[in-house]
Specification:
Shape: globular
Helix content: 25-40%
CATH architecture of the largest domain: 3-Layer(aba) Sandwich
Order of helices and strands: EHEHEEHEEHEHHEHEHEEHEH
Bound molecules: flavin mononucleotide
Number of helices: 10
CATH superfamily of the largest domain: Flavodoxin domain
Number of domains: 2
Strand content: 15-25%
Structural class: alpha/beta
Radius of gyration: 18 Å
CATH class of the largest domain: Alpha Beta
CATH topology of the largest domain: Rossmann fold
Length: about 250
C-alpha cells in the first residue's frame, strides 16, 4: 500500500509505478481511524524545502502503521539536501521503524526557481531511477539515502534564509487575476480546499494554503500567479503521464 501526496503528478506517477494499491494523503488525512495494516507500506511525496510537506508530516503524526516493511520515496527537482535523513529522523520521532528511504529527481515545479519550459526539456532519467527503486523494494532492501556535510549545510542555510522572510509571505503567496473564468479547477484540485468559486470568479482563503502549487499549475488561463517573481509566468507543469482528473481525484475535498 502506498500513501501519496501530489500537486503536479510526479509523486502520483511514481506511486503508480510502484504499487497498485494507493491512497491519497489529502483524503486519508480525514480517516476516522488511521490505523493501517499492510504487508508493505510506502509514503511517496514531493520534497518541500528539503523536507516532507507539512500535510504528509501531519498524516504520519496522526497515523499508526502496522507493517513488516516501511519505506519513503521523495520526489524532488533540483536539490534534495538531507531530506532522507530528516525523513528518517521524523520516523524515529514517531516510532515508525523505517526500512528504506530514497529520492527521485524529476521536473522541479517550484515556479520562483524554475522555468517549466526549460525543466520539461531536461531528461532526468526518471524511468531508470524508478526501475532501480522497484528492484530495491522487491528485495526489501534496507537503506536510507545518506546525507553529506554539504547537504546539511545547504539545509541550514535555507532555514536561516526562510527565517528572514516576512511571516505572511506564505499567506499571500498567490493572487488571482481578471483572467479567471470561474472554471472551478482550483477549487477541486486544492488539497486543502482553499478555493471557492462565486459569481464566475475564484477566491482563495490563504489560511490553509501549504503552497503546493497544485492550483497555480492547473489553472487553464494562468489566472493564478505568485506574488513573488516567477521564472516564467506563462509556463506551467503537469507530469506528462498523469491527467488533470487524476490529480483532482487525489486532492478533492468532499
Ligand atoms: C513549495 C515547494 C518546495 C519545493 N522544495 C524543493 C526542494 O527543497 N528541493 C527540490 O529539489 N525540489 C523542491 N520542490 C520541487 C518538488 O519537490 C518536485 O517538483 C516534486 O517532484 C513535485 O512533485 P508532485 O508533482 O508530486 O507535486 C519544491 C516544490 C514546491 C512546490
Amino acid at each position: 500500500m502506498i500513501f501519496y501526496f501530489t500537486a503536479t503528478g510526479n509523486s502520483l506517477y511514481v506511486s503508480k509505478q510502484l504499487d497498485e494499491e494507493r491512497r491519497s494523503i489529502a483524503q486519508a488525512i480525514h480517516d476516522q481511524n488511521k490505523h493501517y495494516s499492510y504487508e508493505k507500506i510506502g509514503i511517496v511525496c514531493p520534497i518541500f524545502g528539503h523536507e516532507v510537506p507539512p500535510l504528509v508530516k501531519e498524516f504520519m503524526e496522526s497515523s499508526v502503521f502496522e507493517t513488516d516493511y516501511f519505506y519513503m520515496i521523495l520526489t524532488y527537482g533540483n536539490r534534495h539536501a538531507n531530506a532522507a535523513e530528516l525523513a528518517e529522523k521524523l520516523c524515529k520521532k514517531l516510532n515508525i521503524a523505517v526500512d528504506y528511504i530514497n529520492v527521485i529527481l524529476m521536473v522541479d515545479n517550484f515556479l520562483p526557481g524554475f522555468d517549466m519550459e526549460e525543466q520539461k526539456k531536461i531528461d532526468k532519467h526518471v524511468e531508470e531511477q524508478i526501475e532501480l527503486i522497484r528492484q530495491d523494494l522487491k528485495e526489501r532492501k534496507e537503506w536510507i539515502m545518506p546525507a553529506t556535510k554539504t547537504d546539511r549545510e545547504a539545509h541550514e542555510e535555507f532555514l536561516s534564509r526562510m527565517k528572514k522572510m516576512p511571516q505572511n509571505d506564505v499567506l499571500h503567496a498567490y493572487h488571482i487575476t481578471k483572467d479567471c473564468i470561474g472554471c472551478g479547477i482550483c477549487e477541486k484540485i486544492c488539497p486543502k480546499g482553499c478555493f471557492k468559486v462565486e459569481d464566475q470568479k475564484s477566491n482563495q482563503d490563504p489560511k490553509g494554503c501549504i503552497m503546493c502549487m497544485a492550483c497555480i499549475h492547473a489553472c487553464p488561463t494562468k489566472a493564478i500567479q505568485m506574488n513573488m517573481p516567477e521564472k516564467n509566468k506563462n509556463a506551467r507543469y503537469r507530469n506528462e503521464n498523469i491527467s488533470i482528473c487524476e490529480i483532482i481525484d487525489a486532492n478533492i475535498q468532499k
